[in-house]
Each structure stands twice: as C-alpha cells, then as structure tokens.
Design brief:
Strand content: under 5%
Helix content: over 70%
Shape: elongated
Number of helices: 5
Number of strands: 0
Radius of gyration: 28 Å
Structural class: mainly alpha
Largest sheet: none
Order of helices and strands: HHHHH
Length: 147
C-alpha cells in the first residue's frame, strides 16, 4: 500500500509540475503580447504626433488654411491626449473646429447651390479672420512641444 501511495504522490507532483509549466508558458505569451501591444500603441502615438506637428507647421507657415488645420488637428489631438480640451493655450483650435463642424465637405458641399456655398465660405472666412492668430499661436505651442 505504501508503494501505491508513493506512486500516487509522484503522479500528483508530475501533474502539478506539468500544470505549472503550462501556466508559466501562457503567462510568458501574455507578457509578450502586452509588450507588443504597448509598442504598437507607442508607435501609433508617435505617428499621430508627427501628423500633429506637420499640420501645425503648415498652419503656421500659411500653407494650410486655419480652418482646415483646426478641423484636421482636433481629431488627432483627441486621439493623442483628451486633456488638451482643458488647455487654454490650445482652446482656439477647439473653438474653430467646433464652429466649422456642421459645414458640409466634399460631395455634400458640391451638391449645394452656389449661393449657399458662398454663404458658407463667407462664414468660414469670418471665423478664420477672428481666430487666425489664436489658432496659429496654439499651433506654435504644439510645434514647441508644450502640449
């Protein structure tokens, strides 16, 4: 009987060792997946930051309209860090983007009659003249990396 108990204990220890090895292997896989996910997230944020920088520089150098820059920057900044919405030095981008959010683009804009398009263009130009300097200043903050 003691030999049987010994074999049962040995078999139990072998099962425990096997399960421990499987658990360790799976834990290693999960850790590797977590590291890969973190690296992918970092790469994505770096790419978004490059885009933010490029658009901000284009707005500052007047290669891109202030209105277009604000509309392009808002979703990028939302993706990079939502706390930017509380920053007063970047508020002009939000104000401009929200003011233009309801204006149609692409095919929807082309479908409008000429008079409506002209009215929308005048609204956009008025907004640009009111907020151009503050949006460019916000872009300067983004380029400096203060954001």
């Amino acid at each position: 009987m003691s030999a049987t108990v010994g074999w049962m204990i040995a078999a139990g220890l072998a099962v425990i060792a096997g399960l421990a090895w499987v658990a360790w292997r799976e834990l290693t896989k999960v850790k590797a997946q977590d590291q890969a996910k973190a690296a992918a997230t970092q790469a994505r944020l770096a790419n978004l930051q490059v885009s933010v920088d490029a658009i901000a520089r284009a707005v500052m150098s007047e290669q891109c309209d202030v209105s277009e820059g604000a509309l392009r920057l808002k979703p990028l900044l939302d993706a990079v860090d939502t706390s930017w919405l509380q920053r007063s030095d970047l508020r002009a981008i939000l104000v401009m983007a929200e003011a233009l959010a309801d204006q149609p683009i692409k095919d929807a804009r082309n479908a409008l009659d000429k008079q409506t398009r002209m009215r929308l263009d005048l609204e956009r130009m008025k907004l640009e003249s009111e907020h151009a300097e503050s949006v460019r200043a916000a872009c300067a903050v983004l380029v400096r990396g203060d954001a």
